[in-house]
Amino acid sequence: MKKIIAYILAAAAVIALSLAVLAADAGATEDRDGLKSRQEEVHAAAELLRSLGVAEDDPAIKALSDEWWRCQKLKNAKYLGTYTVTGYDLWCAHCQGRWVGVTASGIPPEVGRTVAMCDQFAFGTEIYIEGMGFYTVEDRGVGPGKIDVACASHADCYALTGRYKVWVVNEGSGRPCGS
Ligand SMILES: [Zn+2]
Q: Distance, CA 101 to ligand 1 centroid (Å)?
């Protein structure tokens, strides 16, 4: 019985440590070395959990795995600079006019994936917006230095509006608009 309690306490401590690893400022790890060491930390925390018998589908392991992949993708990403990010409501006729529910690329839009950028970026280009996540360029209508993020509501648009650091993760293969 004592052994089991010690085991549970150890597991709880490791889960707390893993969550602390995830909560650490991800913004401080933009450079390759930072991303590499963060991956090592995240990997070590996940291995510890596994060694204690925590299942692969456990939320703690899943969060660590997501963080490992975020670092992996960012390691080879190209830093673009700081962009002005705004949101647009895909389903609002006032915001979208005749484009309501449609993207310029013809792909059905999806909140959490679709963004609009200028035609310097081919359709299908995958970007990373600091603190927000990965998105795909599927729409147009904004100028250089700007990103419009597909949102489900006006409140969501206002909530995300700001200046963010942005990276290109994968160049799109789709033809830039107008070429
Ligand atoms: Zn609107």
A: 12
